[in-house]
Design a protein that fits this description.
This is Mycothiol-dependent maleylpyruvate isomerase metal-binding domain-containing protein. Strands 1-2 form a two-stranded antiparallel ribbon. Helix 1 packs parallel to helix 4 and helix 2 packs parallel to helix 3. It starts with 7 loop residues before the first helix and ends in a 12-residue tail after the last helix. It has six helices and two strands. It has a single domain, classed as Four Helix Bundle (Hemerythrin (Met), subunit A), CATH 1.20.120. The protein is mainly α and 202 residues long.
Length: 202
């Protein structure tokens, strides 16, 4: 199945809701915890999520060329409320009429040159699904994307190239999954996560 055959807007809305449900369970005293993302505490990860939502929203509306559009997330006094506001912003931007006919600037992925909307939104979609696991693993709550979300995220993750992965990049190197890995675990492994992570950065 090609990415263009997916209802990527609907999948993205659902992945963002999955992520939002997990973020809503975060307590203030958990924000200093380490996460599976080596560079970030939970505070830093949620700030990244807010920044990405704001950046994708700007790009969907015809902006987003400047790196500052992607790095200005501010959690203020309430990380959960900040995430919720950014999620509403990107949901509204992706729901605009004609958005799938636009090109998206993604300066963190490629400096110069835009991406087709469906491909750009698929990046946001898979990021939401896997970051939902990052947050859930950090605070010890379930991560339960449904079968359709998992299958679609696997389709996208399988197309992420090995080149350009590693520290400071969007994704870590792939982690070889066991032969009997579940689809959930295969997805995490494809995106550089260690499914058994429990408090020590991977």
């Amino acid at each position: 199945m090609d990415i263009q055959e997916l209802d990527i807007q609907e999948l993205d809305r659902r992945s963002l809701a999955l992520l939002g449900d997990v973020v809503a369970q975060v307590k203030d005293d958990q924000l200093r915890l380490p996460t599976p993302c080596p560079d970030w505490t939970l505070h830093g990860l949620i700030r990244h999520l807010v920044s990405q939502n704001e950046g994708f929203a700007a790009s969907a509306r015809g902006g987003g060329e400047a790196l500052s559009d992607w790095r200005g997330g501010d959690l203020g006094a309430d990380a959960r409320a900040a995430f919720e506001a950014s999620a509403a912003l990107v949901n509204d931007a992706f729901a605009q009429d004609g958005v799938l006919d636009r090109a998206f600037a993604l300066p963190e992925v490629r400096n110069g040159g835009a991406f087709p909307a469906s491909l750009a939104i698929s990046f946001h979609f898979v990021d939401c699904v896997v970051h939902a696991w990052d947050v859930a693993a950090t605070i010890g709550v379930p991560w339960e994307p449904d079968d359709e979300l998992t299958a679609a995220a696997l389709r996208v993750a399988e197309q992420v190239p090995d080149k350009g992965r590693g520290p400071g990049a969007a994704f870590e190197q792939r982690v070889p999954p066991p032969t009997d890995a579940t689809p959930h675990h295969r997805l995490l492994s494809l995106l550089g996560r260690v499914p058994s992570w429990s408090g020590t950065p991977c």
